Amino acid sequence: MSAAQLIGLDWGTSSLRAYLLGAQGAVLEQRDRPLGIMRVKDGDFAGAFAQACGDWLRAYAQAPVLLAGMIGSKQGWLEAPYCACPADAAAIAATLAPLALAGRTARIVPGLSCTNSAGVPDVMRGEETQIIGALPAAGSHLAVLPGSHSKWAWVEQGTVVRFASFMTGEIYAALTGHTILGRLMQADAPHDAAAFARGVRYGLEAPQELMSRAFSARTLGLFGQLGEAALPSYLSGLLIGSEIGGASGMTPHAGLITIPVTILGNAALTLRYTEALTIAGMRTEAGTPDCAAQGLWRIARAAGLLI
Amino acid sequence: MSAAQLIGLDWGTSSLRAYLLGAQGAVLEQRDRPLGIMRVKDGDFAGAFAQACGDWLRAYAQAPVLLAGMIGSKQGWLEAPYCACPADAAAIAATLAPLALAGRTARIVPGLSCTNSAGVPDVMRGEETQIIGALPAAGSHLAVLPGSHSKWAWVEQGTVVRFASFMTGEIYAALTGHTILGRLMQADAPHDAAAFARGVRYGLEAPQELMSRAFSARTLGLFGQLGEAALPSYLSGLLIGSEIGGASGMTPHAGLITIPVTILGNAALTLRYTEALTIAGMRTEAGTPDCAAQGLWRIARAAGLLI
């Protein structure tokens, strides 16, 4: 195992994933731990790190340590300032935040910020590392990272030009858990592909009417057109359709989206977004599974950290 | 008090308002009680009615009794079927649901239903009575009834042609109470007119991006551009602006809204919607305060119930 060249962590809100990386960024070992920043007691991030991969630290005294994700937020270990878009791996590498760790210096990857045409800021933390890892340094790309706060990122020649967050996942949870829409639903129903597709089409058709169309997740139940087991998938589709409808008007070139959309998400979300984007007439590509690891590697390389 | 000609109730989810009406629908007496259908124990609606205005029932043995609102829903006293749009006072009067009450027959006003161009149903209960009461029987009108589920209604010659619900109020409560947006907010802050207006403009500009723009209620706080006391008003404005932006594309004539919008709501909401609609370049009119009473009167008259 003397080939280990980087200890990299994708450290999020609810969990962390630690990678031991070898030559050319090959993943030598990977560990998933339920030690997200919201689950670390009393701010003992050093203890959590030691628990997750203290043995790596001891075994590879020369390996640099790079941390990405919410660990660099105000609620994390050390607040790493945002790097403003447009930003590529080199710009991110130039703004790493140093952190004393067991006698050496670890580094935290900054999140990205951007400002839209109305002067309103947007932010991401962790997703920038996946984007850098997933996309080639050449060509025009559009990536979507579905989740609680989905991110859409426009990338040119390896540079994140701009991005936009959509609160799709969190709004879905709030609507089903804390509004009248949840009342008619069977919360734990399995995915219903037909109901999902119906929701996608309805949301996509008029995303500007989202707050009105969402009410259909009640009325279609009231009128017996959708059963309680179909309604969660229907509402999920409606929100994702609205997201796609909104995002597809935000492309920097003010045109339609003609390039494939790279989806960077877990298997279930990748499947849903593939279905939804296909309904919207867009082509899709699934991202590489280890894009966070690749991103950590590329940022470490750009920072000159690799041995 | 022998002039009493109608006992009319606007009986909603959280409260009820009872009117004793005389000649030409004049309000002789009005009572507000916290006896909404969700607060009536064990479904004892007869007991709640007796508590609110049993004395009227005894004093005016000949007066007809008309009930509007959620009292006619599945969770209410008796489910009154919806009356399908287009619907005027006569159509509503023709579908009143009879209800035995202390030896006589009370009647429940049906809600309205309509179906949009995508074949999706929408419903209202109670608002139809306010609309019938507020708008003249001649001319083209557009009314908005702000609330948990705002209603926009297009009315021609006293007929509700179509309407659309927007879940604005309930989504506001879910976002502030159950998403990350609430974290940076001072929940009980007083109304901030400048922040509200900023939110209205931002929501109105691109209602199709609502799930993205909502995130600005976090980022503007993170970047210190809006303080915690300003954020609730900002988010409220953003949602109301999105609602107006979405609704203004739904007019049956597929054109811009050129007629004044009649606002039927409480004083605080009427003020907010007046501000927001003015920012959107629309003219507004505040509805009559007693429009529910007037609607009950007009429906009773159309049903031939008045003595």
Task: Provide an overview of this structure.
The structure is a homodimer of 307-residue chains. The first copy, chain A, has 307 residues and is α/β, with parallel strands linked by helices. Chain A has 2 domains: 6-126 and 294-302, 2-Layer Sandwich (Nucleotidyltransferase, domain 5); 166-286, 2-keto-3-deoxy-galactonokinase, C-terminal domain (Nucleotidyltransferase, domain 5), CATH 3.30.420. Chain A is 34% helix and 23% strand. Chain A contains 10 helices and 14 strands. In chain A, the strands form 3 sheets. Chain A has a 6-stranded mixed sheet with strand order 3-2-1-4-7-6, with helices on both faces. Chain A has a 5-stranded mixed sheet with strand order 12-11-10-13-14, sandwiched between helices. In chain A, a hairpin with a 4-residue loop joins strand 1 (6-11) and strand 2 (16-21). Chain A is globular, with a radius of gyration of 21 Å. The mean pLDDT of chain A is 95. Chains A and B meet through strand 9, strand 12, helix 4, helix 6 and helix 7 of A and strand 9, strand 12, helix 4, helix 6 and helix 7 of B.
Number of helices of chain A: 10
* Total number of strands of chain A: 14
Radius of gyration computed on alpha carbons of chain A: 21 Å
CATH architecture assignment name of the largest domain in chain A: 2-Layer Sandwich
The class by helix and strand makeup of chain A works out as alpha/beta
Which CATH class of the largest domain in chain A applies here?
Alpha Beta
What's the structural domain tally of chain A? Answer: 2
**Which range best describes the helical content of chain A: under 10%, 10-25%, 25-40%, 40-55%, 55-70% or over 70%?**
25-40%
Termini separation of chain A: 15 Å
Q: Which residues of chain A sit in consecutive blocks of at least 5 with pLDDT less than 50?
A: none
